[in-house]
Amino acid sequence: MATAETATTETTAKVTNSSQSTKEREEKIRNLAEKLLSIEIQNVPDEQEPPSLFNINGVEVLPKDAVGIIAAQKKSGKSNFAGLLMAASASPNHQVLNGAIRSNEGKLKILNIDTEQPLRDARRTLRRIMKTAGYDYGEQWNTHGIVSLSVKDIEEADRMTIIELAIKKYEPQLVFVDGIADLIGSINDEREAKEVMAWMDYLSCEYDCAVVGMLHLNFNSGKIGGWAGTQANKKFTDSFILKKDKSNGFFTVEHEGRGESAPNLRFKIVCPYGQKVGWWETVDISSIPELTQEDAEEMELRNLMDAAPLPCTNTQLISWLMNVKRWTSKSPADKTLKKCKQYGILDSRREGRQSVWYVVTTPDAQEQELNLSDD
Questions:
Q1: SS in 3 state form for the chain?
Q2: Cα–Cα distance for residue pair 128/372, rounded to 1 Å
Q3: CA separation for the pair 369, 375 (Å, rounded)
Q4: Phi/psi of residue 354, each to 5°?
Q5: Is the pTM of this model over 0.85?
Q6: What whole-number distance in Å separates Cα of residue 237 and Cα of residue 243?
Q7: Is 60 within 8 Å of 238 (Cβ atoms)?
Q8: What is the pLDDT of residues 238-259, one digit of tens each?
Q9: Cα dist. 19→16, 22, 135, 270 in Å?
């Protein structure tokens, strides 16, 4: 049975807690009242609108205080396109690809956050940026406004915090986050996806910069993957979808903006034999031959097999094809593999009692770079 003293103590604690709760609520209301004054939308002259940092094929893109998205399937040009934007900023005349990409603000302060590449590959991309901008192989990118950080060895729970600390330190006008999926446990988690996109939106407004996140496209649909993609589609001001033609190594950039969309941009990697680092050049559309039906079929098969779990046994590959294409019999899968062999996309060899399929690789400029030593 509670004593009078115990009852008095409990009553005092309840009053104290209630008083603290009231003070917290009042403080929150005062903070929100101050915030209310800052969120009313006012009309301003055009010159006071957040400036667009770049012009692509005559269209203004990537304004400050906004979020952009770069998306592609694996190894299809996300980092290359981001590199072109960085090269345009760093270049003495602030443009690349014969003026197709121009920096409106001259040399920008750019923060590039890499979440996945090995340091060797990240450095190679940065050297390619310098080469495209017109500098020597050994040029330091941080003297041209580019700071690049690798957070792949940082604990997942700390990555968003350290990125914000970097933004506070370097005060960039443009931030690349390559890629968003490495900041969350699962791109299919709706709550996490909303949080990371809201965080990017917050960074862009709080620090007066453009924030560009990179994501992968789903193989089957060609859409940005998971809930992260769904949230990205709601938030972006500019979206850039990268596609790579496996037959010639050409990259195509498809832009979608809230207003006008820029015409498609095409570029390629040039790396002469013996060069350690290549560079990016524009592709003259008139020089691209019209695709024949056979060319189109080969491209479709190459894109299909780019996602296959190769090397693998004949049984495994047929099972994978039937699952992806939703075929109910193995006959169309057999025909597909036969065509892949005819086009020189795949080959097979006997290993013991099984037949194993593997990709027939044709080195392009990017692969040639990877095979050269950095030493």
A1: CCCHHHHHHHHHHHHHHHHHHHHHHHHHHHHHHHHHHHHCCCCCCHHHCCCEEEEECCEEEEECCEEEEEEECCCCCHHHHHHHHHHHHHCCCCEECCCCEEECCCCCCEEEEECCCCHHHHHHHHHHHHHHHCCCCCCCHHHHCEEEEECCCCCHHHHHHHHHHHHHHHCCCEEEEECHHHHCCCCCCHHHHHHHHHHHHHHHHHCCCEEEEEEEECCCCCCECHHHHHHHHHHCCEEEEEEECCCCCCEEEEEEECCCCCCCEEEEEECCCCCCCCEEEECCHHHCCCCCHHHHHHHHHHHHHCCCCCCEEHHHHHHHHHHHHCCCCCHHHHHHHHHHHHCCCEEEEEECCEEEEEECCCCCHHHHHHCCCCC
A2: 14
A3: 13
A4: -110, 155
A5: no
A6: 20
A7: no
A8: 999 999 887 788 999 999 998 8
A9: 5, 5, 65, 70
Instruction: Give residue 62's identity as a one-letter amino acid code.
Output: L
Q: What percent of the chain has pLDDT over 90?
A: 50
Q: What is the mean pLDDT of residues 53-67?
A: 95
